[in-house]
Structure formats: C-alpha cells, structure tokens
Amino acid sequence: MLDTHLHLDDPKLADNAENIITDCEKAGIEFVINNSCDMSSMLASVALADRFKRVFATVGMHPHDSKSFDDAFVAKMTEFATHPKVVAVGEIGLDYFYDLSDRATQRDVFAAQIELADSYKLPLQLHIRDAYGDAWDILRAQRKYLNSGVLWHCYSGSAEFARQAAKEGHYFAFGGAITFKNAHKEEVIASVPINRVLSETDSPYLSPEPLRGRINTPLNIPIIVAKLANVYGVDVAAMETQIHNNALKLFPKIRAFLQ
Ligand SMILES: [Zn+2]
Q1: What's the domain count of the chain?
Q2: Protein residues with C-beta less than 5 angstroms from the ion ligand 1
Q3: DSSP letter (8 states) at residue 208
Q4: What gap in Å lies between CA 161 and CA 131, rounded to an integer?
Q5: How remote is the CA of residue 92 from the centroid of ligand 1, in Å?
Q6: Given this model, what pLDDT does residue 157 score?
Q7: C-alpha span between 208 and 175 (Å, rounded)
Q8: What is the three-class DSSP state of 182?
Q9: Could you tell me the distance, in angstroms and rounded to a whole number, from the CA of residue 203 to the centre of ligand 1?
Q10: What is the mean pLDDT of residues 202-225?
Q11: What is the CATH number of the domain that holds 145?
C-alpha cells in the first residue's frame, strides 16, 4: 500500500516522523510522497526524502502561498527538480475557498509551475478547491506542457468532471473524505477508471472514519484502500496491486528505489 500525498514535515507529525516511517515499514506501506507548499516545506520534503528510503518528495508552491512565488523560489524548485527522489510538482493549483492569495496571482503561478514541471518531465499534483472551471481552462491553455501526467489530489469535484478529465488520462487520489458518513462519494469514485485511481491520506489532516478528528498518519492508508476496493467491487489485494501499478506509471522515478 502507498500514500501519494501527505505532510510529514507538518508540526503535528514532524517530531514523530522517524517512528511513523518505521511503523509504516512494519505495516507494509511501501512508500509515501511528501508534498511541498512553500519554501520551508519544500526544503523539509527534500530533506525527508534524503533521510528516509521510502519517502519521496514533490516541489512547488501551494495556491495559498502563490503571493510568495518569486525568483528565489523558482531557483530552488529548479535545483531540486532533478533530485532523483523528487517525483512531481505539487501541490499546485487554485483555492477559491480560502482565497489566501488573490485569484489572478493564483492563476499565473499555477500556469507558470505547469510549464516548469514539463521542463523536468515531472507530473503535477493538483490542489483545486471551488475552482474547477478555471483550473480546467488553465490546463487546456497549458495543454502542450501536460506530457508527464496530472493527479487531482483529494479529488472533490463531480462525477461528470472526473469522467471528462479521465478521458485526458488524468489520475485522481482519494483520502479520508471518502469514508465520512453522508459523503456519498461512491458515484464519483466509480466514475474514475480503476487504472486512474490512487490512495492518499493528506496527513496530518482528514483522518478517515472511525478516526475522524484525530491526527492522521499514513498508517491509515489501509482504510482508504478498503473503501476503494469496496466501491470497485474487487478484493483488497487486487486494489492494492492496481494502485501500486498506477502509482509507478504516474511517478516513474520511484521505480529505481523499489528494488
Ligand atoms: Zn496537502
């Protein structure tokens, strides 16, 4: 099992990162991908990937922090992009729910990072909230740069939108939110082809039921995989194999480390 999106450098987890990684190894969790949001989390993500065999990193600026996207950040992102354990650009996108950076800046920074990712043949990890229309327009406009894959992290859009993006070959990661009572996410999940689905926790956030409200860790990934297996009507082992294959297809740089 694996976790394509989490934040081990978050203050809620950072002091305990070593124990969490050790417990993950014992629990058979093969790898996790630590996502970056700003300069400090990008430095922390790469440091975690350097320190732990089963941790990989992304580089990028979260839409919340778009206003801090400057030359120094681009220089560091560019330097890290060729690191063997940096496997994606993320989490990037648009967040019109919190609007912590102005929307025009969010759009410009999102577009710029799509182009940057393509220079290094890295897939994208998207964070999109209340902005699916604009996100789609930017992805269309930047289409020539989408050569290495797109992952919608913590996918919260409609079934119809997922079908449209899946036709373009995009991937979708689901986490704790699919286990919440009254979430009714089955139709949305089922609209994603099984060869385009991934599992994530977004730790320390979004703990699945029955642990909702507690600090989340990648040790909860089996709860997500079980829910996905249930929706697709396959057994857990088959779901696990499918997710493993999907992840290695989207993040090919990981293959070299799994021998
Ligand atoms: Zn995240």
Answers
A1: 1
A2: 35, 202
A3: P
A4: 12
A5: 10
A6: 93
A7: 7
A8: coil
A9: 8
A10: 95
A11: 3.20.20.140
